[in-house]
C-alpha cells in the first residue's frame, strides 16, 4: 500500500507530504485548493504523460515520490517484473519517483534504478488503480465492456480468450496464405526458389550454436596479439640493422672492441671497456629473446581477415533469417520442411483449404466455449452490480450484459464472436438501454463505483484511488457511496478526493487542503486531521460553518460510521 507521498513544485503545490494509512483516506478542501493535483501527481508517478506546465512558476523542475509497502503482496508476476528490470526491493519497500524538468524531459526511478516510462507503467499498474472523472466516461465505451467482464470472470475466461486469440491468428495466417497462392499462380515456384536460395546460403555458411561467441572472442584475442606483435616487431627493428646502417648491437660490439684495444695502452680505460663488453652481451641476449618471442607467436594476419569475414557473413544472415544462430538454423530447417511439402503436394491449395476447414471448426469451438463462459459470468455480474446499485440508492435499477452474435462477414473479432455491451435502466418499466444513453452524472458515477466494487473482490491491486466519485450526487446517495467506499476499504487501501460531508465523515484518515497567498504567490497547504479537525471539516462540508448545531450534526454523522 502507499505509505508516503511527497510532492514538490507541482503547480500551486510548493511542498506537501502525505502519509496515508490503511482503510479509507479522504482528501477534502475548498474549491480550487488543488485536491485533484494530488491525484495528478500520483498519476505522474504511475507513468502519465509529463508536461512542463506541471512545474510551479519560478521553479526549474517538479518532483513526486511515492513509497509503497509491498511486503504483503503475493504476486509472482509482480516479483518477476521487478527481477527482469534489475530492481531490488528494500525490505518490501518500493520507492517510485519522477522528476519533470522545464525542458519537458522527465526521469523516473524505482528504488534508485532508472526506468523507462513503459516499465514504470507496468510496475505501477500492479500497485495502484486510479479512477477519475475521465474513467467514468470509460463506461460509455463499449469496447471496454468485454474487458471488464473478462476481469470479473477470472482465470478460466482469460485462458479461453488467450487460446481463442492464438487460434484466430493461426487461422488468419492460413487464410492469407491461401489468398496469396490463389491470387498468384506462380507463387509456389517463386516461394520454392526463395526457400532453396535461403537453405543453400545458410547451409554453406554452416554456423554452429555458440560459434558467434567464439568468433568475437577470437577477434578480440587477434586484436590484442596484433598490437603485441607490432610492439615486438618495432622493438626488434631498433636492435637490427638494414643495408644502410649498423644496428645498436653491432655498434656497441664495435665500440667494445675499440675500448678493449685502448685499455691495453691505458689501464684507466679497462673498467669502461668491461662495462661496454657487458652491455654488448646484454643487448645481444635481448635481441635473441625478441627473435624467439616473435618466432613463437607466429601472428596470423590471414586468420584475422577470415574471422572478420565470417562475422560479416553472420551479420548478413541475421539480418535476413533471424536474430541468433539458432534462429537462422531453425529458419533453414523450417524451409527444408516447407520445400519437402511443396515437392510432395501436387495440389497444395486443396490441402490448405482442408486445413482451413479444420482450423475454422477448432476456432469456432473455442469461440463458443468463450461465449458460454462469458454468459455464465455475465449472469453473476448482472446480479452483483444490480445489488450494488440498490445499495447506492438505486433500488429499481437494472443492469444487464447484452450479447449480440456478430454478422458472418465479421464473425471472428479479436474479442470473440459476440458484441458485448452493458445496458442499464434506472426506473421500473423502462427498457434497459446502452450506458451511453445515461444523462445523469450521478448515475454514471454510481454505476462505475458499483463496477469497481464488484471487480475489487477479484482484484489484486492493493491501492484504489477515486477522484470525486461523488460528482452529481448528494444526500442519501452520497451516504450510500460513503458506505460503499468504506466497504471497499476493508480489503483495499482507498484514497478519495471528495467534496461531500458523508465521505469525509466515513474516513479512517482525513486530509484537508487549503490555499494561502503570500507575497503574491499562491500555495497549497495540507493538514492531517485529528478528531477535532475532522469534525470541523465535516461541519464545513455540511453547512459551510462551524456553528454548534453544525458541529453536533457533523459529530453524529462521523459516529454513524464508527463500526
Task: Provide structural commentary.
- By secondary structure, the chain is α/β, with parallel strands linked by helices.
- The chain folds into three domains: 1-135 and 462-529, P-loop containing nucleotide triphosphate hydrolases (Rossmann fold, 3-Layer(aba) Sandwich), CATH 3.40.50; 141-183 and 345-437, no CATH class; 187-337.
- It has helices at 35-45, 76-84, 117-124, 133-138, 142-153, 155-183, 187-205, 211-239, 248-265, 270-297, 301-321, 325-344, 348-391, 441-456, 475-488, 501-505, 531-543, 548-559; strands at residues 2-10, 13-18, 24-29, 61-69, 93-101, 106-110, 113-115, 128-131, 398-405, 418-425, 433-434, 463-467, 493-497, 509-518, 521-528.
- The protein has a six-stranded antiparallel sheet with strand order 2-1-4-5-6-7.
- Helix 15 (475-488) links the parallel strand 12 (463-467) and strand 13.
- Helix 6 packs antiparallel against helix 13 and helix 11 crosses helix 12 (325-344).
- The model has no long low-confidence stretch (mean pLDDT 83).
- Mean pLDDT metric: 83
Q: Return residue spans where pLDDT drops below 50 for at least 5 consecutive residues.
A: none
Number of helices: 18
Work out the radius of gyration. Answer: 39 Å
Number of folding domains?
A: 3
How far the N terminus sits from the C terminus, by CA atoms, comes to 23 Å
User: Would you give the CATH topology of the largest domain?
Assistant: Rossmann fold
The order of strands across the largest sheet is: 2-1-4-5-6-7
Residue fraction in strands: 15-25%
Tell me the name of the CATH class of the largest domain: Alpha Beta
- The total count of strands amounts to 15
Quaternary structure classification:
single chain
The CATH architecture classification of the largest domain is 3-Layer(aba) Sandwich
Give the CATH H-level superfamily of the largest domain: P-loop containing nucleotide triphosphate hydrolases
Helix-residue proportion: 55-70%
Shape: flat
